[in-house]
Amino acid sequence: MFIFGLAVVFKLFSIQFLQGEKYKAMASERVVKNVVIPANRGNVYSVHGNLLATSVPKYDIRIDAFAPSTKNFEKYLIPLCDSLAKFKNGSSSYYQKELRKARANKNRYYLLARNIGYSQYIRFRNFPLLELGAYKGGLIVEQTTKREHPMGGIAQRSIGYERIDEKGNVTRAGIDGAFGIKYLRGTDGQRKKQLIGKGQWKPLSDANEIEPKDGYDVYTTIDVNIQDIAHHALLEQLEKYKADHGCVVVMETKTGEIRAISNLGRNSDGYYYERLNYAVGESHESGSTFKLMALTAGLEDKVIDTTDIVDTENGVVKFYGKSVRDSHHGGYGKITLAKAFEVSSNTGIVKAIDKAYGKNPSKFIDRLYDFNLHKDLGLPIIGEPKPIIPDPRIKNGRWSGIALQWMAYGYGVSFTPLQTLTFYNAIANDGQMVRPRFLKEVKEFDAVIEPFEKEVIDERICSKETVVKVKQLLKNVVEQKFGTGHRLYSENFSMAGKTGTCQKDYSNKEKLNYISSFAGYFPAENPKYSCIVVIHEPDKSVGYYGADVSGPVFKKIAQKIFTDTPIVDEVESLEVKQASVQKEFEGFYKAAQTYKTIMPNVVGLPAMDALALLENMQVKIKVKLEGNGVVKKQSIEQNIKLQNNQVIVLTAS
Prior knowledge:
By secondary structure, the chain is an alpha+beta fold. Strands 2, 3, 4, 5, 10, 19 and 20 form a 7-stranded mixed sheet that branches. Strands 13-12-11-24-23-22 form a 6-stranded antiparallel sheet, sandwiched between helices. Strands 1-8-9 form a 3-stranded antiparallel sheet. Helix 10 (224-241) packs antiparallel against helix 20.
C-alpha cells in the first residue's frame, strides 16, 4: 500500500509539474478557441450616393444565466421577463421559469433572441439586468451581417455579390464580387470563445481581442434614375415579345462611365429577373450591327465610298452555293452603298466588301484589329469572353471560302453587347475609344481613397473623315423615311444608330430563333449617351426585327433621359445690355432717388415700374391702375406735393 501510495504521488507530481504545460495546452485547445470576427463589408453606392448594396448587421442575444449575482438576478428577473414578454408577445411567467431553470443548470449561453436588427438590438441592451453588461448582467451579443440590395431586383446581378459555400467555394458576381477583395471586404478581427458544454461556445473578452476593420465604400458610375428607366423599358418589351432574355447598357459617351446596365432572363414560371450578366458575359453573332464595323473598315482603307453604286440584284446573292438574302423581297435594285447601309441590305454590303477585300481578306481583318475589335475590354467584372474574328492566317477551323462575305453582315464574328457598344461609342466620340467604367471612386467615410479616371483605349480608331461619314449614315438610319430605324424618329430629339436582326441556331430549322438588337447614341449632333439593346429569342409570331423589338426600348430610354435631363446650351450673351432698357432703368432709378413726397412724371414708364415707384414713396398714397402696358396719363401732375391717403389714377395702354 505504501509503494502504491508513492506511485500515485509520483504520477500526480509528474502530471502537475513535469507534464503540466502539455496538458494545460491540450485542455486549452479543447475548451478555448480563436474565432474570426467578420469585418463589415463596405457599401456600394450609385454615382449620386444612392445605396445599391449594404451589409445589414444582425444580432443573436444570449445570456449567461450564472454570471449575475443572486441579488441582481432576483431584483431584475421579473422586469426582464416582462420586457421579453412584451418584445415576443409571450408570457412573463414562462420566461421567469425558463431563466430560473437556466440558472439552476448553470446555462451560460441561453438564447433570448436570434437574427434581430440593430434597433431591436439597442432595445435589448436597455432591458433590465441586460443593461448591466456582460459581467454583471450576463449579456452576450453575437453579430453577423447580411448583404441586402435596397433597389431589389433592379441591377442586382450587375451590382453583384460575393458568396462562400460550405465547402469554401467562392462565387463573385458583378461589381460587389469584382472589387470585394481589394476594397469592400475589410480586415477580419479575432476573439476567443470558451466551450461551455453541449457544443456551445461563449465569447471571451481579453487583451488579445482584435477589432475588425470595416471595408471601404465603393461609388459606382450607375445613375439610379437612368437604371430604373432602362430596367422597366427592357422588362416591358421582354414581356410583350415573350423573349427568353435581354440586356441594356447606357454609357456616357465622353467618359465611358456606365450609367445603367440591366440583364433580365425568364424563369420557368415566365417571370423575368437578373439571371446572368448578359451584357458583360454573353458573346453572340452580331448580325447587322456589325455592318458599321465593316463599312468603317472599308472607308478607312479607302477601298469603298458611301457614293459607290451596288446592285442588290433580286435580293439574293450566292457565294460557293450559299445564299445571302435581303429581308426585302426582290431586293432594292441599284442603290448607293450609303442607302444599302441605311436600309440594311445584306446583299449590298456583302457585295461591296467582297469586291474590296475578296482577293486580300487579311487586309480587312487587320483593319478590324486596328479597331481593337479582337481584344477583350479588360473589365474587372468576371466573365468577359474574348471576341471571335475569323482570320485566314490562324488555323482554328473558323475560316472558310465564305467567311469574309458572312462577316460583312455579322455572321461568324462574335462580341458581347458591351464590346459592340464600345465601338459605337467610339464613333459617337469622334473616334476616341474609351474603356467602359463601373467605378467612380472608393471612399472611407468622406475621404477619397482612390479616384477612377477616364481610360482611353485608342485616341483615334479612324480618321475624322471616316467618322463624319459613318455618323451621317447612322443618323440617316433613323431620320430617313426608308431607314430601318425610322419608326423611332422623333421631331423632339435626335438619335442615331443601327438595327440588327441575327438568326440564332440557324443550323437547325426546328430551333431557329432570332437575336434583335439596336445600338446607337443620342443626341445625334452632340452625343451625350450611347446605348445598346439586345433581346434574345422573341416570339416569332409577335415579331423579331431589331427595329420592332429592341428599337422601342432604345427610344424609350433616350426619350425619358432627354425629358428628365434635357441638354441645355448656354447662352453666352446674357450679360449684353440693351441700350433702351438701360436708359429706362436709369430714369426709373433717378426718379426714385429724387421724388420722395412730390409727384414724379411717370408717363412713359411701364405700369409695373410706375406702381413700384409710387408705392415706395415716403407718403402713404393709394394708386389705381386702369389698363395695362405703358402709362399714358396720370391724374396728379408732376411736382405737386402729395398728401397721405391721396388717390392717384394711372391710365395705361
